[in-house]
Design brief:
Number of strands: 20
Number of helices: 6
Distance between the termini: 61 Å
Number of domains: 2
Strand content: 35-45%
Order of helices and strands: HHEHHHHEEEEEEEEEEEEEEEEEEE
Amino acid sequence: MNKENFNQSIDNIDLPLEKLLAREKAAMSQAKKMRKFGRTTKHSMLIACGLCITLFGSGFVSSGMAAVLSNIPLIGPIYTEFRDIATDKIEKDQLATVIEKQDSHDGLTMTVKEAAYDGGRLIVTVAYSGEKALSLKEENVGYNYVTINGEEFKVAIGSGTQRPINSKTTIEQHQFTLAKYNEYGDKIEVAVHGKDLFGYKGKWGVSFPLEKIKGEIHEFYPNVKTKNVNEVYTLTADKVTFSPLSTRIDVTVDYPAELDENDRWKWFDFSVVDNNGNVYDRLKLQAGMAGNYGHHMVLALPPMDTIPKSLTLKPADINSERYREDIKELELVVPLQKTK
């Protein structure tokens, strides 16, 4: 089977979302050895596109979405297509800042459409439009990256998602949960950089100032912990932050130092349940690492207008069939009563 026919056969495979997510989480667990703290935010757009098609379903927007993008400069509805954890909040409260700044040369235009920043997360939406069709061949797709205040920054969670509108236009969303909350303060300078994009040769760059979203931020320091029976692993909920773009949970994972050798430490797959029984998992929860070897985990849930009385963290293993197996003895109830 040639490469083209193979790719078409892969595209035609219909797998249930649950199995896709389970496989993706298993792959992330296997790839943890490469998730070191000093990793760069620069990435191949082809890899990002492939990952997010797996996570988010079809790689093409609806005809209605295409009409929205082609007729008006405001693209708030794009977040519905990307299924970002803050989608509803961004649309309801109009949190995104309209940028509409571009760099155009050699037949390709990069346009930063919107951006949003709340001190803990940064979301940037970019449109690419070419005079000829945009190439997605691996050798032609190029790479891009985002900087804050002129420097690449450390992230706990990051992704780049693409949605083709037609053969000459694609929309891309970058989302980052920063490794350290509020490291950059209320005002930042953001820049999107690209090189040799979609078969076009050259460098593109768009920079713009961005202010933190105005809104209440609530911080809790519960400092509660749990450990498994053999005391190999201890989980501590250090901080819970409620901000306009996410509900962030910082978790410390302690284990014997010898497990660092050969990366034998465990990558937990988390779900979270609040005291009202609302479950946050699958597309409603993102997990990442803000330090080496999984010692500092960050969980990002959708933003919440009403703060629950508690959150229960439910860590799990991924079994040989790529499904979750809850680790009951490490479940951790996090009370949310006092702010610091």
